[in-house]
Amino acid sequence: MNATVPAMSETLLALVFVLLLIAPLAVAGVALINTGLGRSRSAAQALLGNLAMVAVAAVFFAVIGATIAGNLSGTGFSFYAAGKPWNWLGAGSLFLHGMGSATPQAQLELLFEFLAVSMVVLIPWGSGADRWRLAGGCAAAAVVAGVLFPLFAHWIWGGGWLGQLGANFGLGAGFLDVGGAAAVHLFGGLSALVLLWIVGPRSGKFPKEGLSTAMPGHHAVAVLFGCLLALIGWTAWNAAGAILWLHAPLTALPETAINTLLSASAALAATFAVTRARFGKPDASLCANGWLAGLVTSSACAALAPAIGAIFAGAVAGLFTPLLVELLELALSVDDPSGAITVHGAAGLWGLLMAGLFAPKPGQFMAQLVGIAALLGLALPLLYLFFALLNRVVEFRADADGERLGMDLYELGGSAYPEFVIHRDDSYR
What we know:
two-stranded antiparallel ribbon; Ammonium transporter fold
């Protein structure tokens, strides 16, 4: 915890703890959405993968990642340039040593980051549905949780140089990422993009240049129920982030919660209207993507925007979500079953820009641009480097038999729906 941050009251500390106990419902919602948007013959592997990746991420973050994030110690490694300190790496202890002696606020910040790393590793898993092997997913989760996510978390939340842009360069309050729009969602969207570069599309998805085969998700009910679970978790998450990172008072929390709902609702309405206009009827899976994009947008700006601003931010996110999903698939041949590049990456970036627009301090928009540029310029090449190396050690993609049989039979030896006969696709006949 930064030593310049005022200590919170016991009431606020207790409230944050309760909110963070509710926030995992957002992780559960995304896990259900990931599973429902995949194929029925890979459903068990998909949901087990969500659970396994959360478990691996928690362990590696505890062993290594929390050291780099540096919240418990409040210290880090710095170098000086232009007469200013640039804190770039945390200097905590391994294995969470000293957690019991840390301040309650620092412990809650650490818990927030545990939830954040659980979410970030799930985002690319949905994009790699129906062809990403469990071993590869768990290996990627270990690297993200142990090294990559903690680095950016330290820069943003652990007293690192992005969080100090205000104090050192007069750029607003420094880079603001109240609910993880950058460290979780933009970073997760970039990891999904890198993964898809490596594993490629599902077999039969693009039979000829310019053509795309529809491969709809198998369980719309799970997807839509996941959206409702996500709303509950997101509301708690945004409120907890507002207290921890913005030091918001109790009186600001109802507006944060309302803005979370308004952003998601406006996004859903916009996606509903776009898909109905384009296809004659609203599309359930794209509407779910729009709702989630609104929640991701709210992660950045729900605690900063007025109600009309939250509606505007969510509506724009819901408007571009189906269009960008279609553009990526049809124009760029990107096979992203969960839409994570758009829903998490693009919506997270949009929310960060809106946070800069609505924040009260001058220079905040420039601070947001610097943070976004740092993520795009550093996270993307680092992710590609680590994922490409991992793929050589633990092959990410299943072989052709795995895709033909389905990941359930291929990796688990049994189906999620054994009482149903699952027919093969035409492309495998």
